Amino acid sequence: MKNGLSRRHFLKLAGSTLLSLAAGCGFTAPPAVNGKLDEAARPVRKLARTLTGDTTLEARFIRQIVTHDNRVSRTVMWQSDDAQAGAEVAWRLAGNEDFSIAPATSERYTDDQQDAYLHTALLEPLVPGKTYEYRLLAGEQGSDWLPFATDSDAPFTCLIFPDSQCSDGYVTWREVAQDAVRRNPNAAFLISMGDLVDNGEDHNQWEQWFAGLDGVLSRLPLAPVMGNHETYTLDWQTRLPLAFLSLFSVPENGSAAFGRYYYSFDYGDVHFAVVNTQMNEIDDLRPGLLAEQLAWLPRDLAATTKKWKVVLMHRDVLRYGIHKRPDRKPGIDNLGRTFMPIFDEAGVDAVLTAHLHTYRDRGRLYDFRPADRGPLYILTGVAGNVRYPGLWVDHDFDKVIAPQPETDNYLTLDASPNELIFRCFLPDGTLIDEARLRK
Ligand SMILES: [Fe+2]
Ligand SMILES: [Fe+2]
What percentage of the chain's residues is helix, strand, coil (to nearest 5)? Predict the structure, then answer.
């Protein structure tokens, strides 16, 4: 410190100054929290401004997560070794001095013999179409102010990443993700299609996965889809997806048994339904995931008033042949037999899948056949270094296949009032496919 005060002493002084400010300055009206006025949510003038510049808070993997309605709320999470009792998040309109405080829930999280604390705060109510800033706070310590923006119902672009599991320390994932973000500075949020990591219990892999998005998830929200690898133990048995569910506080779905296993959210004029395809892994541990979703999905898709409906699911709806296994016949997978009629009935516009580590645009399918109506089915590819060269036999429904042997790819979705445009790119920005839906 310039004046010779130690950092800690300075913080103490700043803290007591803040308390005086809080006691002496005029407060603006406290926001409602769960319908009640909450003392902890009371906006305080200038408190955070006094602390600007202090970035001593231990906060790893700061991330934003989508909420049901991204016009008016945003979830923020971070991790720490310290308990950080009383953790909270300050948020304000960009450029404003007044701010609000949202209390964070802090939970001890132990997995793969590693302890951490997970902190989660819901920032609401927000105003649609605004640029905001947020700052993590715990005791006398804070983070930088970080940017976020609310959905405005206007056209948007989002980034879509297929399977990102890696065996190279997630170097490939980092390059694909960071290049995609750099090439799309207007992206509003990210979708991850599942198999984020190769082993869902391996804490090193989760840390490497988050590190791959360094500087990204603190400013853009994520919509993660659960993949089968999120259910694997260190010795490759299956377990309930503890890490995935703990690390990503995605929107609730009202289920007692499978809370947040599947969910939906809106962005712009698009309703996204995130279907969980891990019945094979989860049924023996906790039965009923399919039955629940078969009740939920038609209801969820019927309830939306959004113009566009997009389904995100990890496993594919088609069955692909395997060159070395001529007995395996291509066709419609059981998952497709189950879900495609629901998509047809509900007027789903596009279905994005993953899991096979190959990019395939199958065009629109209706009643299990290529058609000029029905959803557009895109198998989204691979964004890590786990590749299956020469494995799959092309499917009769394939219209566009990534250049072989396949490397990595990512997608963009541009959503505007009358058009959805899905584009697939190689990491160097080469466009390999473009699919448009108009209505
Ligand atoms: Fe995968
Ligand atoms: Fe998978």
Answer: 20, 35, 45
> Which residues are near ligand 1, the ion (C-beta closer than 5 Å)?
163, 195
Question: Is residue 156 scored above 80 in pLDDT?
Answer: yes
Report yes or no: 338 and 294 within 8 Å, Cβ to Cβ.
yes
The confidence score (pLDDT) of residue 54 equals 58
Q: Is the dihedral of CA 204, 230, 268, 151 positive or negative?
A: negative
Give the number of other Cβ atoms within 10 Å of residue 280's Cβ.
13
In the structure encoding, which two tokens stand for residue 217, read together? 């998830």
List, in sequence order, the alpha helices (H) in 184-312.
203-212, 242-247, 279-282, 289-303
- Helix 203-212 to helix 171-183 angle (10° resolution) is 30
Q: Give residue 193 CA to ligand 1 midpoint distance, Å.
A: 9
Percent share of the chain, pLDDT over 90: 85
> What separation in Å is there between the alpha carbon of 68 and the centre of ligand 2?
25
- Give the 3-state DSSP-derived string for 381-400, with helices as H, strands as E and coil as C: CECCCCCCCCCECCCCCCCE
Q: DSSP H helical segments within 185-333, as ranges?
A: 203-212, 242-247, 279-282, 289-303
Q: Residue 408 to residues 189, 200, 385, 429, 430: CA-CA distances in angstroms?
A: 20, 21, 8, 11, 11
Report pLDDT for 38: 40
CA distance 252 to 261: 9
Distance, CA 200 to ligand 2 centroid (Å)? 12
Q: Which domains does the chain have, with CATH numbers?
A: 7-149 (2.60.40.380), 156-438 (3.60.21.10)
Single pTM value for the model: 0.89
User: How many whole angstroms from 154 Cα to the centroid of ligand 1?
Assistant: 33
